[in-house]
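Regression check, protoporphyrin IX containing FE case 714:
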Amino acid sequence: MKVLLRALRSPRLAVWTIVAVAAYAAVASIIERSDYSAPYRTPLFLALATLLASSTAACALERTRRTIRSWRSDEVSPEARERVLLKPMISLPTPYRGELVMERVDGSLRSLGMSVRRHDDMLQARSHAVTVLGSPVFHWALTLLFVVIVLGQLTRSEGLMGIVVGSSKPDIEDSYGKLEVGPWAGGLSGALIGVPRVDWDHTAGEVSRGASPFVELRTARGDLLASGHVYANRPLRHGSMLVHSASHGLAVVVSLQTPSGAGENEVLLDYIPGQEQVEPNGFTLSGSDDAPVASVLFDLPPQPRDGTTRRVRVHIASGPASPADASAREIVLAEGESVDLGSGVRLTIERLTSYARLSVVDDWSVPFIYVLFAVAAVGLSLAIFAPYRTVRVLVVDGPEGVRVHALVRHGRGEPGFPARVERALAGAVKGGGHGRDD
Amino acid sequence: MGETTEVLLMWTAVSVYALAAVLFIVGFMFGKERLNALALLATAIGIVPHVAAVVGRWVRLGHGPYLGFYEVISSFALLGSVAFLLLALRIQTLRVAGTALMPIAFLALGGAMLAPKGGLDVTPALASYWLGIHVAFAKLTYGSLITGFGLAIMFLLRAKRPDHRLLSRLPDDATLDDLVFKFVAAGFMFLGIMIAAGAVWANEAWGRYWGWDPIETWSLISWLCYAAVLHARLTLGWKGPRFMWAAIAALPVVLFALVGVAVVYNSIHGAYLTGP
Ligand code: HEM
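Current build output:
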């Protein structure tokens, strides 16, 4: 375990793993031009990502240990004192002595925004406690991002369902036209998703949002959970559920009278972009012996669309023939009209209306991801712009008079920092014309 | 302001930037401080018609300069030039960096002028305040990373010609090295925020925060490249020329994410850059 941890926190391994992930993504994006996310489900990529995540975790752990150590090391070891005495980075003569030097040095270090502690004849100044946190907080946030993203992907569900205006569907597998469920996902919520109306030219925030379905989310018992217009950049949320408007089209609600009973069917028709026509869509009817009785296909009669379509064209083929065949019958029907399909089956157009296709996502991980983004940004800005800094100052009373020795540390090795410290110290400890000069 | 006036102003800006770039380069080659100062003046003069054109267009179209390649690159060149001017006025020793930066501003603006200039609409899909955040951080990112790149080039040039009159006025190696690190690190952070803002926005717009769309992928690749550069410096101790080369080598990746992806891939972000 220890060996593994040590291997994982090797800085060289970290750089190479980062480069390898970047190179993998670059090559993948050049090779795979249709299913963009396919290369990120391969075992090789998952292995690389796992290595990067574990290595980041190992580094974060290492950084945290060091942070705790440096937090605790408020004591100054005899070796540290020795280093300041023998190998100072700054050594300044001063005419002041005793408590007065200490006071002046103390003041000058505080003027640099550092907190100062006294250890006998030594002063130790440190930047604010949060400055040690930058790097560990950033790397932990990255590690947790990996974990939360993976858990989210394994447990989320995302699907598309078409809902005829004025009706609702439960959030269950059968309601979806297309559904992707993560391997560890629990069941779907079962909530009722309803679209009481669509506003064809909804305006919000002075921008015309186009057709916007009004969506209601209810419990299975019918209690309202959330509702609102849904349009681009404005999903409806409830808990971990997010409902987007994906598209809309025509809906034909038909009833079928057969010798064995009655039933209802919904046919959803999508507009072909840029045309006054829809993609034909329909269904096949089977008789009691499962043999096909008739197939019907719906589209629009050739007429200009006047906002609300009042009539549909029905292509009917009897038996196993396809409605696209030349032998198929064609009939244009309005709401309330019906047609005989043969074998005692009668089809009635009950309603011609529209439907909204909604994208329904259930992903609890998103808010956590957002929070981790924010934590990472704070950690990183601390690490870069406010790194940990220390100054140790020893007042040395030697044969050539009193000198102030200082050792300066800057987390990023910023070359300007020692110079700033030196200026501050020099200003405080140098003798002035009147013995004092501040 | 009409489109003709705008285009005239823009071409004026392009020409003056070109002059500034030439003055910077000639001044640099012959080590003439006067030319260098003149180049800085030309930069300041070029900014005036550029600002006028961008503001005029903003008022005419009713949205900021972030829709379409022309607006994106032009406003980016503008912010870059202004940032450089302010930096050069504040820290005189950095003036010579204009030799690397102004040719980039000139080429970017010249390139932007070749793109379609028709105004795009803020479609409902774009109408989100995340767009503003995303775009603002994109500009900060490219500004910081290109500045880091320019200073890195200056560092390497001086290593070759230490007694060059203008280069020798740059801050000493250690300070310049630290400055390149800071620009690169800041650019890395801005890029991270830009990617995160893009992810939040994608979730609002499409219900997914990440889809491995080419521009998302290439932004992540750029971010990882800079993470590697920063690690090389902080954990492997790369300083001086090696670090400079790394900072220089990473920039083309970012530029590819900015420009190349829209051209090479048929991405959902493509229309935003190249127009419908
Ligand atoms: C996605 C992966 C990673 C990214 C994006 C990343 C990014 C960064 C950045 C931007 C810095 C500079 C700011 C800072 O000091 O925190 C940094 C520093 C550092 N990183 Fe990473 N890192 C990653 C993974 C790793 C891994 C796997 C290691 C393990 C070796 C590691 C170890 C370090 C160390 C030791 C520092 C220097 C910290 C200091 O000097 O205080 N990082 N990293």
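Comparison notes: Chain B touches chain A through 49 residues (CB under 8 Å). The first helix of chain B runs from residue 3 to 30. No diff flagged against the previous build.
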